[in-house]
Amino acid sequence: MSFLKITGLSARLKGTAFPILRDVSLEVAAGEVHGLVGESGAGKSMIGKAVLGILPASVEITRGAIELDGMDLLSLPPAERRRRIGATAALIPQDPLTALNPSRRIGPQVTDRLVDILGWPRARAETRARELLAEVHIPDPERVMRSYPHELSGGMRQRILIASAFAAEPKLIVADEPTTALDVTVQKQILKLIAEMQARHGTALLFVTHDLGVVSKVCQSLSVLYGGKVMEATTVRDFFRQPAHGYSRALLAATPKYTDPAASLTPVPDAVIAAVQAEIAAHDRSLRHG
Amino acid sequence: MQLFRAFLLRLATTAVTLIGVAVIVFVVIRVVPGNPIAMMLPPGATEADIARLTAQYGLDKSIPAQFLIWCQGVVQGDFGTSITSNQPVLRLVLGRLPATLELSIMALVIAVVIGGAIALTGTRNRGTKVEAALDVGNGMALSVPDFLWGLVLILIFGVLWPVFHISGRVTPSLELPFTTDFYLFESVLRLRFDLWADIVSHMFMPALALAIPLAAIIGQLLKQSLKETMHLDYVTLARTKGYGENHVITREALPNAILPTLTLVGVQFTFLIGGTVIIERLFSYEGLGNMAIDAVINRDLPLIQGIVILFAAIFTAVNLIVDLSYALLNPRLRHGQ
Amino acid sequence: MASNSGTDGRSQIRRRVGLKLWLSAGWLGVLVLAALLAPWIAPQDPLAQDLFLGRLPPVWQQGAEPGFWLGTDSLGRDVLSRILYGARLALIVALVAGSLTCLIGASLGLMAGFLRGWVDVVISRAIDIWMAFPPVLFSILLIAVMGPGLVSIILAIVVIDWTRFARVVRAEAMAQGAMDYVASAQVAGRGRVSTMLTEILPNVLPTIVVLLTLEMGIAVIVEAILSFVNLSISTDDPTWGGMIAEGRTSIHQAWWVLIFPLVTLFLTVLSFSQLGEGLKDRFDPVLR
Ligand SMILES: Nc1ncnc2c1ncn2[C@@H]1O[C@H](COP(=O)(O)OP(=O)(O)O)[C@@H](O)[C@H]1O
Ligand SMILES: [Mg+2]
Fold first, then answer.
1. Which CATH number fits domain A2-289: 3.40.630.10, 3.10.450.710, 3.40.50.300, 3.50.50.60?
2. pLDDT value, residue C287
3. φ, ψ for residue C186 (rounded to 5)?
4. Tens-place pLDDT, residues B223-254
5. What Gene Ontology molecular function terms does this protein carry (chain A) (predicted)?
6. Cβ-Cβ contacts under 8 Å, A16 against chain C
7. Contact B154 C251 (CB under 8 A)
8. Which residues have a Cβ under 8 Å from the Cβ of A94 and sit 6 or more positions away?
9. What architecture (CATH level 2) is domain C2-43+86-229+266-282?
10. In B, which residues are within 8 Å of C133 by CB distance?
C-alpha cells in the first residue's frame, strides 16, 4: 500500500506552454525513503511543493492526481486540503537560516501546528516540543525554546526544523535538500539525524537531493528526473547495480565516487542530454496526440 | 551599551537642532518692520509709554542680548509673556497643546487603521483588480496634501451630506465639566459619552484630512513590504503546517513587515503634526496651530517663538521615540547583534 | 519563458504610465493657455464687483445670469474669470519658486554630497534644523515678516523647501561619487568641481527634474494656503486660495464659490504630482 501516490502529474508556467512537470508518476510506501534526484532545475522541488500544496502562484497544475493517505488532494477544497496536509505531512526545508520566523521565539514555532491545527492543549504541545528537541540532541531545550532564531547556529536551527517536522507524527515528510545550505562538517550529522528520526518514527520520506552518494545511504527507492520528467523509477539497489536508463548511467558516471559526499557532480555528456531531450520531445508529442 | 551610546549621540544632536531652531526663529521675527509694541497701545500713547513697554518686553536690547535673556528664562520655565493677551506664553501654549495632541494622535490612529487595512487587503488580493484599484486610490491620496483633502471633506460631509461638524472643537453651548484640556480622554474617563460623541464628531473631519496622505503611505509601504515577506521560506513553511492565507499574512509576515514601515511612518507623522497648523485653521479647531496663525497675524513675538519651539520639540521627540521603538521592536538589535 | 507574461505586464504599466503623463500634461497645458489668454477669454472683469449680482449660481441652476458661467461670489465677482486670472499667479509661483528652489537646493545638495567634509557637515546640520520646523507655520511667519506680495511668497517657498532637493541630491551624489567612473575621472586629473559638473550632475539630473515637477505642485499649494490665510498678494487680486477662503465662509449659502476653485486647484496639484511620478517611472530603468 503506497502512502503517497502521484499519477500523471503535469504542471506548467501559468499562462504559458512552458512545462515544469511532465506526466510525473511515483509512489512512496508507508515508512519508505524515496529519493528524488536530478540536476538543478529538473523539477525535484516542484514535486515536493505540489505534494505539500505550496506551488508558487506562477505554476499551475494542468492534470494528474496526488493521493496522500488515500485522499485525493487536488479534488479537496483548498481550506480542507491545507488542513489535511498540515495534519499528515511536513517539510524539512532547504535553508535553516531563512525557514524560521525571525520575530517569533522558537517554542511557538515548534508547537503552533499542534495547538492551532491539531487542537492540542498548549501545555501538552510544549512538553512534546521539549521531548523532540532533546530527541534531536539539542542541549537545554528549555532555553532554546525561549530563544529567537538569530541567537542559534545554522546546524542548531536545522535540528529545530527537523524536530518541528516530526512534532505532529506525520506519515510523510518532504526533505528538500536539507543539508546543502549547511557546513560540510554539519552536513553528515544532520543527514544521520534525519535517517535516525525517520527510522525511529517510521515516517515515509520524500528525499530531494542532487547527491547520489546521499541517496545510496538513506533511500530505498528513487526517481531520476530530467526536465520535469521521470526518466527512471527503481530501487536504490537496482539503480546502482544496473541503471536502466541512459541518463541514469550518465548521471552515475558523472559522480566520480558516489561514496564521497563532497564530490560534486560533473556535467553529463552532451550526447546523453541530446538523447534525453529527443525522448522528452517524443513524449510531449504523444501526450498531445493521445 | 552600543545602543546607549547611540542614544546619547541622538540626544546631543537633538539639542543642537532645537537650539538652531530657537536662534533662527529669534532672528527672523526680530527683523519684523514696525514696532509691535506701538500697535498694542491705545492711540494717544506717548513715546515714553512705548519706550517703557518696549523695555518691559526687553525689545530695546540687542538681538544676542535678547536671546540670552530669553534662554535664561526658558531654563527656568519662563517663555515670556504674550503681547496680545498679556499672559505667560507657557500657560497659553500648554492650554492649547492637548487639543493639537489629541487631533494628531486621532489622525495617526485613523491613518494606521486605514493604511493597515489597505495593505492587508492589497496583500490578500495581490495581482488582482482589487490591488490595482487600491494602488490608484493610494496614488491619488498621496498626490494631494491634507489641506485639499480637508476642503474636499468639508464639501462632502459638511454640505452635501452633513453628518459631521466642520468647525470648532466642541459645540459651544455644551456645559463642560473638564478639569484638563484633554477633552477627548477626559470625557471617556468621566464616562460622559454624550460629550465624547460631540468631540469626536468635531474632530473626525480634520483628523481624517490629516490622516489620508499618511494612510496612503502606510498602505503602500506596508503592502510592498508584506508582499516581499510573503515569498520568504518561513511563510511557506507555515503554509505547509496547515495555516491559511489570513493567518500567514497577519501572524507570520506582518510582524516582520512592520519594522521597515515604522521609521518612515515616524518621519511622516511629524509632517502630519506640521499639517495641523493649516488644518486647524481650516476647521476653526482651537489648537496650537490656529493660535500660531493668530499670533503671526498679531505679531505676538513671544508667543510665536514659544509655539515654533514647541513644534520643533515635538518633531524631534517623535523622531527620537521612533528610533527607540525601532530598536526595541527589532529582536536583532534588542539582543545587541 | 517567464519573459512572456513579463513583457505583457510591463507594456501594460507603460501604457498606464503614458496615459497618466498625457492627462497631466494636458491639464497643465490647458492651464497655461488659460493663464496666457485670460484677458481675452475671461467673460467678465475679475475685479468688477456688483452687489446686485452677489452669489449668483452657475448657469445651469435656477436664478442664474447669462455670462456668469460658474456663478459669482458674495461681492458679485465672476467665479470663472477669477479662476482664469488666478491661474496666472499660480503658474508664476510654480515656475519661479519651483526653479529657484531647485537651483539652490540641488546646488547645496550636490556640494554636500560630492565635496563632503565641512561643507557636508554644515549643510546636513542645516537640513536637520529645517526638518524640525513646521513648514506651514514657517512660511506664514516668513510672509508676516517680509510682508505680503509675490516676491515674499516665492522667497518663503525657496527658504523652506530647498531641503527637499538638498536631501535627495546629496544622497544621490554620494552614491554616484562612490562609483568607479567618478574615481577614474579624478584619476584622469580633472578638478573636483569639473568632475562634479561633468560626471555627477548629468546622472542626478533625472532625479532633479522629477523633484522639480513635484515642487511646482507644492508651490501652488503653498501659495493657495498663504492666500487662504490672507497673506498672499493684495486681497483683491484673484487667487485660488483667496477664492477658497471666501468659499469656505459662504459654504452653506453658495457652494459653487468653493467647489470650482477647489477642483481647479485639486486637478493642478494632482497633475504636477502625477507628471512627476510618471517621469520617475520613465527615467527608472527598472520599472517597479
Ligand atoms: N517560482 C517559480 N515560478 C516559476 N517557475 C519556477 C519557479 N521556481 C522554479 N521554477 C522553474 O521550475 C523548474 C523546476 O524547478 P525546481 O523544482 O526548483 O528544480 P530543482 O530540481 O532544482 O529543485 C525550473 O525550470 C525552474 O526554472
Ligand atoms: Mg530545488
1. 3.40.50.300
2. 39
3. -70, -40
4. 999 999 999 999 999 999 999 999 999 999 99
5. ATP binding; ATP hydrolysis activity
6. 1, 4-5
7. yes
8. A176, A177, A178, A180, A181, B233
9. Orthogonal Bundle (1.10)
10. 21, 24, 274, 308, 311-312
